[in-house]
Design brief:
10 helices; alpha/beta; about 40% helix; about 280 residues; about 20% strand; six-stranded parallel beta sheet
Amino acid sequence: MRPAGRRAAVLGAPIAHSLSPVLHRAAYREMGLTGWSYDRFEVDEDGIAPFLEKLSASGEDWAGLSLTMPLKRAVIPLLDGVGDTAVSVGAVNTVVLAADGRRLGENTDIPGMIAALRERGVGSVPHAAVLGAGATASSALAALARICAGEVTAYVRSRERAEEMRGWGERLGVAVRTAGWADAPRALTAPLVIATTPAGATDALAAAVPERPGTLFDVLYEPWPTPLAAAWSAVGGQVLGGLDLLVHQAVLQVELMTGRSPAPLAVMRAAGEAALAARTA
């Protein structure tokens, strides 16, 4: 029988900003998981293999790992199994460390995004727009493959990015049309807009928010609100932020790592909101 206390952590580079410890620790307290711990470690692509080997040799009882960039793809060759959702986008954000020593990769970003949208009443849309073309954009396409009935338009900055997004669309079974970033204001008329760009990239679009916008899912959580999110809310549009995604994907991680369900969504969200408010103060 496993001991009551187990370890988990989030890895990435940079990692000091991560809210994952706040969310997971709040879940452990609420679920009565006495002795469980959740830490953060600065680990880059070159360091992930040595970290996993050291972890295996430590003799400690590890339950799992959360992964941020740049590890979501780098970890895949080091795993013993990868779930279908993670395979679909070639990205693992969760490693479950099984009792038999296997390392099992999963992706909770995609179901987390879908769960966050459904919580706000967005279960399906006729078409959608994606701003950006990075790793998060491919996860957005995977989520839209399940809830979008029609075409997804991706607004990107280069021909290479456009080709990548069309390629992801083909693999995921999503009809993807691409447009240049100069046309990004047109994206804001879609019933669902998912912004996957870095901080500051969409600031100029705030002036182009339509009078009656649909739903905006801006994956940033710090700084928050972004100018685009603030302008969207000001005219009554529905806005989801990066904390919504972070909390919903963390709920799934907690359930995978602990083997217990449901994880306390409301408690985890409140902890995340409090932590962000403290940073702002």
